[in-house]
Task: structure prediction
Amino acid sequence: MRQQLEMAVQTVQRLDASTADVVIIGRVGQDLSQYRQRYSHLAFAYRDGVHWYVVHKLNECGTAVSSIYEQGMGQFFMDSPFLLEAYVSVPQPEVQHALRAAIDRAQATRMHEPHYNMLAYPWATRYQQSNQWVNETLARALESQIETREQAQAWLRAKGYTPDTLNLGPLTRLGGRMFKANIAFDDHPNALRFSDRIETTTADSVFAFLQKSGIEASHFVIRGASAPAVAD
Result:
């Protein structure tokens, strides 16, 4: 717990030094190395005076339901993370301004679908996972005409967002569907699903999109005491 709180303090210090007001932050909540992924969970973080707050979508205790939460930075790192490491993407100033309005309490749920699926298909609307909500909220912030999730997904396609493909074996896929309420595959195209290729919105794919599209102005990595050295 002490290391987690120290990580939160270290993150706030780095955010203060960045002079940013809104960022997109990712944490290593789960070990996804077998899928060649580093970061598992995305959130928006914004500055309100001298304090930083995190806005993100969380699954409720392994159920098929989710909600949007606003928390302090300390809570963001208290969710039993696999590693105390964070990637911070600092958007262009005009993007920060647009995002600040989009994650306001009155607007943050506009792109939210409460039916949660950890492996939701990025181009469907039956379910939604946490990183997908961040991506679709970003789209709505940057295109004022977007009112629906379908429109947000179309914008992301047009701008070149590419989801990652996870290669899941049939037993893994079957076990996940049978024993976990927050995992489903029935929104994926059959051609992908039955070949065990699962496309989903990963934190790594969103960070790649932010860089490629020019939405990101800069980024930095913060590592706590438990994180091994890895090239940025």
In short: The first strand starts at residue 22 and ends at 28.
